[in-house]
Amino acid sequence: MSFWKMFGASVAAFACGMVVVFIVLFIMGAQLVSSFKIDMKQEVVKPNTVLYIDLAEDIVDAPRVSTFGVFVPETLTFAQPLTLLHALAAIESAAVDNNIKGLCININGMGSASAANIEELRGAIERFKLSGKFVVAYDDIYTQSDYYLASVADHVILQPEGSLEWRGVAFNSMFVKSLLDKIDAKVEIFRPTGCRYKSAVEIYSRTDMSAADREQMSALANTMWSGIVEDVAASRNIDATELKRLASSLEINLAEEALRAGLVDEIGYEDSLYDYYAEHGVLTNGLDGYNHLSLGEYSAIIHANWTRIPFKQGTDKYDTPYKQPLLAVVYADGNIVDGNMLIDGYVYGSMLAAELRQLRLDENTKAVVLRVNSPGGSALASDVVWREMQLLQQAKPVVVSMGSMAASGGYYISVPADFIYADKLTLTGSIGVFGVMFNFSETLEKHLGITFDGAGTSREANGISLVAELTPRQKEVITEGIDRVYSTFTEHVAEGRNLSLESVLAVAEGRVWSGREALELGLVDGIGGLTESIALAAELADMGGNYLIYELAAPPTALEEMIESISSLFTASVGVSTPALESGIREIVEDNLHLFNYGGIQCVMPNKIELNL
Fold this sequence. Notes:
Blueprint: H1 2-41, E1 49-53, E2 59-60, E3 70-72, E4 77-79, E5 82-83, H2 84-95, E6 100-105, H3 115-129, E7 134-142, H4 144-150, E8 155-164, E9 170-172, H5 177-182, E10 186-190, H6 202-205, H7 211-236, H8 240-248, H9 255-261, E11 266-267, H10 270-279, E12 291-294, H11 295-302, E13 308-310, E14 326-333, E15 335-337, E16 346-348, H12 349-361, E17 365-374, E18 376-378, H13 379-395, E19 398-407, H14 409-412, E20 419-422, E21 427-429, E22 435-439, H15 441-448, H16 472-497, H17 501-507, E23 512-514, H18 515-521, E24 526-527, H19 530-540, E25 548-553, H20 558-574, H21 579-582, E26 602-604, E27 610-612
Parallel strand pairs: 1-6, 1-12, 2-5, 6-7, 7-8, 8-11, 13-25, 14-17, 14-25, 15-16, 17-19, 19-20, 19-21, 20-24
Antiparallel strand pairs: 3-4, 9-27, 10-22, 18-26, 21-23
């Protein structure tokens, strides 16, 4: 009887497993089919097409590690974000594409873009307008972020019952001290006396902003808001002082108010948008409609053969198959951590250092652009990357393009570059260091009845623990390490930026600066984005116009190679390229970092800071 029970259970388990496999294969098949359909439909750009910027997908700095992207349960598909590099290139290409008649900004998708990426998209649209093609914006509701992008349009339309948000910029931070007190957890904080603005640790020790933190965040908000207002004022021909007044008094909300203030040009329904098309020579497609392509769809067409060369892990030589000069774009996107892995949202120091080393040794790669979008992280990992950046800069031109944030460790790894570009809305600086140690011994004893004890060769033999108080000597050792890292950090900045140590210390102290402020202080060299960075890197390498831009990517996994093979078979049989499947980005690994992983000294910008744009 027991045999048959076990046999039945095994059969049931096998059946359940097959169901799960079937579901997974069904989802993958649905994604394959949807990709094929999209590619077949968009093999060419039809005449009289309007390019749509609708944020149908996320616009991100770096390609995702996983080829599959983010699973969307509602559609049983995997949504792939659009990298900023591809988005900018698509807009530049549309400007000279005779089939693209104009550009429409209509933010009705579920995707997102950071403030700095919106700034770069806005700059690309400004350049698009030089082609003489129209740019129009239409929406039911303009959030402030949406309007910042839409304000660059020649003509802005708002739905009659819609609204427009115009209120200013704020930063918000979360504090957990009261929570730690409730669970009887203790925290020891270490930071140099000169790092009074290094507020990342204050979320554990305070319930509100310190005076220094409030000072830096207020200044940062005002500077960033001034940059946004100046851009809108220039595009809309409205006095900047008036725009600030409208925001501070919250006078803009309804469509009529936005029209009266000059923020929009027309109140109308969607047919008003089509009337605008007709007025500017866009012909219908014969079905009483117009041809539209989203930014992501258009990018997939023009980048069907976009070059992405896989990074070969474990080798010192970066062997590219191309004979023409190469310009590499490599990414530092996420928190900087120790180790040698590939996980979305993290920059593993040893891995990035290996990538930079291979770029240095590759004879065909003549220049490198490092796109940094990082709040920082491990001081050790940052130093590992810094050294490879220094060696790379000695061998060939290196330009850093700062995204939303390149602060603390993110700034640390940037300073060896020949030239640093930052967006106006970039958060950078935060030159400082801290350490934080938790003690949960009372938490475990009072709430769970768990205690710890032991014996060893000395009081220090156990090392630093989360369930024991720090000894006086341990505190001394941590303080010594903190001071040493801060000294090294500031010296590297002084050397890389060709500044005196005294001037660096005057703007350090852990303080965060906007891109505009950083330029005034000499922490960056110019205001610009990826487009400007690539152009300058090519110029510094004297590459002329005969070079190939490529993104450095990780090798495909076995599963990704299998999908690529299936994709190739499909392509051969029907003659349709499938760039969404052929990109082969990076191997899939599990995110196993822990909340309290503070094993070393940290170079991180103010923690849990959220920009409310």
